[in-house]
């Protein structure tokens, strides 16, 4: 009716079970940044210029940080992550991890395909002629120990959060990040000292793609855990609500599992050239002369 005053009560928050997402520039921004990063990598391959890579990484990290900031605000301060929304987030995280698993599976498939049926181009042998496979019982074995230990410290942190032990959880997260950084340093050392590179036959391509992509996922996991560490110090988590930390734990355990498979398939099995496999393992462990 004309002239009638609007007396509708408008609530400042979403009072439904669902989260009505507001328009955000960050998904589009991150998409453009990732495209810039991909173009920068190609430029690096062709011209050895890292300018595009630096710009791509910087813009991607900035966009992701802003996007993450908004999600944390919606979950912690605006109360938009209801139990139903949290269930959807868990499902989405599990589907994301499953898609990442298929991504790694494709490269494992390529490695095992060429290893089981080596062609004339690689000398009808695996590893190919002229390729010295890395010793799986040296730095790779140490890295396996570090990642397994980091999984234990992260589980310790999760248990501490559920018991409302803030500083115990903080030490668990710091220990996990420390072990993850040491892992990446050792991995970089192995790449630097490797007698082959990504251009050396299909072995080098598969090796560096698998270890490089895994290292990239470790880096992403470290950022995820660092954000959870900061949120823990700011009292964003409680014994009942710590979904962000739970997703970080799932992701880190996935990274651990991928590395164990990678070490077993690429390093141990992929470096087996002759004799019994059990003799090969025993010799590598120093149990046989």
From TrEMBL:
SUPFAM superfamilies: Cytochrome c oxidase subunit III-like. One of its GO terms (cellular component) is membrane. One of its GO terms (biological process) is mitochondrial electron transport, cytochrome c to oxygen. GO terms for molecular function: cytochrome-c oxidase activity. Keywords: Membrane, Mitochondrion, Translocase, Transmembrane, Transmembrane helix. Its main location: membrane. Gene3D superfamilies: 1.10.287.70, Cytochrome c oxidase, subunit III, four-helix bundle. Residues 14-271 form the Heme-copper oxidase subunit III family profile domain. The chain crosses the membrane at residues 26-46, 52-72, 93-116, 136-157, 169-187, 207-230, 250-270. Component of the cytochrome c oxidase, the last enzyme in the mitochondrial electron transport chain which drives oxidative phosphorylation. The respiratory chain contains 3 multisubunit complexes succinate dehydrogenase (complex II, CII), ubiquinol-cytochrome c oxidoreductase (cytochrome b-c1 complex, complex III, CIII) and cytochrome c oxidase (complex IV, CIV), that cooperate to transfer electrons derived from NADH and succinate to molecular oxygen, creating an electrochemical gradient over the inner membrane that drives transmembrane transport and the ATP synthase. This is Cytochrome c oxidase subunit 3. It comes from Nipponacmea fuscoviridis.
């Amino acid at each position: 009716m004309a002239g009638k005053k609007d007396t509708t009560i408008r609530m400042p928050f979403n009072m439904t079970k669902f989260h009505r997402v507001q328009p955000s520039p960050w998904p589009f921004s991150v998409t453009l940044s990732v495209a810039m990063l991909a173009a920068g990598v190609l430029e690096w391959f062709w011209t050895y210029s890292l300018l595009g890579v630096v710009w791509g990484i910087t813009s991607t990290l900035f966009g992701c940080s802003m996007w993450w900031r908004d999600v944390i605000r919606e979950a912690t301060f605006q109360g938009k992550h209801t139990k139903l929304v949290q269930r959807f987030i868990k499902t989405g995280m599990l589907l994301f991890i499953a898609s990442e698993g298929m991504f790694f599976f494709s490269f494992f498939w390529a490695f095992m395909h060429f290893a089981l049926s080596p062609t004339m181009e690689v000398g009808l042998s695996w590893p190919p002629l002229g390729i010295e496979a890395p010793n799986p019982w040296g730095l790779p074995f140490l890295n396996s120990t570090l990642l397994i230990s980091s999984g234990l410290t992260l589980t310790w942190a999760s248990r501490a959060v559920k018991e409302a032990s803030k500083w115990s959880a903080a030490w668990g997260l710091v220990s996990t990040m420390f072990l993850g950084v040491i892992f990446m340093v050792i991995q970089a050392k192995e790449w630097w000292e490797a007698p082959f590179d990504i251009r050396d036959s299909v072995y080098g391509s598969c090796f560096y793609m698998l270890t490089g992509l895994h290292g990239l996922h470790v880096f992403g996991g470290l950022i995820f855990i660092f954000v959870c560490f900061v949120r823990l110090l700011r009292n964003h988590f409680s014994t009942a609500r710590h979904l962000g930390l739970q997703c970080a734990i799932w992701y880190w355990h996935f990274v651990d599992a991928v590395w164990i498979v990678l070490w077993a398939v690429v390093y141990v099995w992929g470096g087996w050239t002759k004799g019994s496999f059990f003799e090969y393992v025993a010799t590598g462990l120093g149990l046989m002369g």
